[in-house]
Amino acid sequence: MRQNSIPVAERVAQRTLAGRESSYAEEVRRLLDAALAVMLRCGTTSSPRVADIVAEAGLSNEAFYRHFASKSDLVTALLEDGADRLRNYLAHQMDKERTPQAQVRRWVQGVLSQAEPGIAETTLAVLWNGGSVGIEQASGRHFASAPLAGLLHEPLAALGSSKVELHARLAAHATLGMLADHLWQRTQPSRREVDEIIAFCLAPVTSSSA
Questions:
Q1: How far, in Å, CA of 125 to CA of 38, rounded?
Q2: Is 81 in the same domain as 181?
Q3: Predicted model pTM
Q4: Measured between alpha carbons, how far is 105 from 107 in angstroms, rounded to an integer?
Q5: For the segment 156-203, what is each residue's pLDDT rounded down to a tens digit?
Q6: Which domain holds residue 154?
Q7: Which of 49, 68, 87 is the endpoint of a domain?
Q8: CA 19 to chain centre
Q9: Contact 82, 126 (CB under 8 A)
């Protein structure tokens, strides 16, 4: 009879962790959602305590510190979660288009739509809390530049860009920079501004093909 190469202690531990994985993921989701709700209520005038977040989630301090070493760790996770959600949203919007030009347009429109009321207040609240606890990526103007720029690689390459990564980074910095200005000023970009940003993002490839 062949012996299992994994020691009994490790096998038992693996079974235990597998059983807890689902409940732990649910705890993390509840903490993230609770943090968003509390931060949105506090806005950019006050910073919620860990106790406030735990109470909103209906969990214990033990549950919080099981997953996060500090409030700054939680805010970092919120920033990453927001970046993932925005990237997935933009990818979905771009998939609706057949031409690379239209995909770039959708990307720009999707990014700048984050300045709309409701979405903007949530983003501002998280960024403000990130800055208040000294998170470097939150003290900058936007936390999702690299993953969002990656979405532009394929359409820009299809359009004939000879420097895809550079052109995508420039487009992301310009678009996210405008978004940040509108977020902090609590305004929304005009249609003309959106069109100008789209033209800017397409300029390297349109000028080279002219």
A1: 9
A2: yes
A3: 0.79
A4: 5
A5: 999 999 999 999 999 999 999 999 899 889 999 999 999 999 999 999
A6: 77-210
A7: 68
A8: 29
A9: yes
